[in-house]
Give the backbone structure.
Amino acid sequence: MSEDLAWSAEDDVTNEAGEQDAPAETETKGKTDWKGELRGIAWLVLAVLGFHSFIAKPFYIPSESMLPGLLVGDQLVVSKYAYGWSFVSPTIPNPVAIFRGLVLHQNVESWGFQLPHMNGRLFGSLPKRGDVVIVTPPGRNTDYIKRVIGLPGDRLQVIDGTVMINGVAIKRSAIHYVDIPDYGGVPTPDEFNLHKVTCDPGDYGADALQTGRDGKHFCHLPMVTETLPDGRTFETVDEGYSDGDNYGPVTVPADHVFLMGDNRDRSADSRFPIPAPSNGLGGPVPWEYIGGRAEFITFSKSGNGSWNPLTIGQWFRGGRAGTSLRPAGGK
């Protein structure tokens, strides 16, 4: 509660004896304008939600489907305006879901409401091939992050792990190994406050999780550099045969895109059906389900350390902040 002091204005008034009167000091206690305070909070909340809905919002990486470019724990910025706006653009919090997730630690699909489906986009434009985008699977209310591989009219097929676009194979480099430092072997919280071990040798093989001389874990993974028809390049993980290594062919319909994860053998994407246990995207995705474009990483949680402030230096991975998520090369 605020407290104001009101002073008398009779500074130069004298009494009959010619003596100057002392200023009369009065104290008034102001009352809090609760309606005004609540109105200000409401406008602030609306401004934040409006910014998240139409300009940009933060996004957290809970899975390994976009290795090596995105690690579990990366925090990034997604631009909402890059392709125009659709029914999945608005950010509308669901208090019940937030309570269940934060307080009850229940597995909830989303902490927000989703508007009813509407076709098309306002001021819409298609993503470019190679863009990393946020997408909501049709019929679901959760966000995935994938890379755009196929555009409308493309005839797309995967043969023995090689992506074919209009009958031409995407250029692939020879397999080479990349070490992802400070990654794996530690419990990392995901979006549901559960824990899982990243770079699990049971998934990636006995040689994947290694320990350096400094005692820190790193992930030793086989990579292939892919080059799209327009010259944009990026790294993908190739562990050998997986269920998604042969797919199609399919022709991408108008106003649809075909999406794939960079961790090709561990990504639920357009190659897989939507229902569990696949939890994929069910083929080419209508463009109105694209929520935005991933721009850059702001910081990255390592999963190390504890609530002890002395361990704060272990909380974050170095060298991740400011990393662009645009593919190299191309136009």
Notes: The longest strand covers residues 217-227. The helical segments are 34-54, 95-102, 201-204. The CA atoms of residues 53 and 231 lie 32 Å apart. Confidence is low (pLDDT under 50) at residues 1-18, 24-28, 190-195.
